[in-house]
Amino acid sequence: MRADFEEYLESTRRLIDRALEETVKDYPCEISELKEVMDYSLWGGKRLRGVTLLSIYEGLGGSKEQALPFALGLEMIHAYSLVHDDLPCMDNDEYRRGRLTCHKRFGEAMALLCGDALLTLAFEVMLSARGVDPRCVTQAARSIARAAGIGGMVGGQVLDLQLEGKKSGKESVTRMYRLKTGALFQASAEAGAMLWGAPREVVESVSRWGCDFGYAYQIIDDLEDSRKAGKEETKDTLVKESSIEEVFKEAGQALQESLGAISALGESVWFLRGLSRRYAQNLESLRRGILVE
């Protein structure tokens, strides 16, 4: 892993954080209550999807500023999905990232509307990108829309609800993981390459990286949750469908496949390699019972 991986991750995360705050604050809307809820819901998080997109676009030769609207859009979509996921009709969570969930803090109706506002603002912001070929903007936005919708995140959430309280088999859980989490990571990588107008083989390579990395990311997330008591006990996960050793092997293999997908792309995707290797370290630490923070 390159020595500047951590520095790049942190500086780019801060860039996205500042831009998200400014975008909501400066939006021409007089409903201050809605802005407050949106700002609250955008707080925190690793920003991995946005950083992924920016790292690819920059690695291919572009500037972060040109692609930043797409990074913001991705993080707004991710935040909206968490707000809705926490609602009583879904997972009924009380806390998110150490704070009260949106509906616990502001009420269910406002949380629902906050999610709607974040989703729609995401596409307004992405389509406002300047200095990028409009055809590339349209292509990247379409990829993200597909990943966020029926054939991706929303479809995966439906499967997640259908599997709750059941043991449906490894194949069903794997499909759910790849839709619910893998699809948006896949689109983050695809969109970064599409915005630059990269050749099809580059788009396909980073797309495979995102699919495999996102799948491993969800497995690791469930491994972490399996160490805690609570509502996740009702979820159907690979931890329940396989032996713990098989689950670790599955996640490790997916991370190796993510590295293989981008093996021919050289230094342009150095950050993606670092991210896969970082999560391989996290996986090994989980195996030892100590999570790398």
Automatic annotation (TrEMBL):
Entry's Gene Ontology BP terms: terpenoid biosynthetic process
What keywords does the record list, in alphabetical order?
Isoprene biosynthesis, Magnesium, Metal-binding, Transferase
User: Which cofactors are reported in the record for this sequence?
Assistant: Mg(2+)
What EC identifiers does the entry list? Answer: 2.5.1.10
A Pfam family name for this chain? Answer: polyprenyl_synt
Give the source's domain of life in one word.
Bacteria
Catalytic activity, as annotated: isopentenyl diphosphate + (2E)-geranyl diphosphate = (2E,6E)-farnesyl diphosphate + diphosphate
Task: Indicate what this protein is called per its UniProt record.
Answer: Farnesyl diphosphate synthase
Q: Which organism is it from?
A: Candidatus Fermentithermobacillus carboniphilus
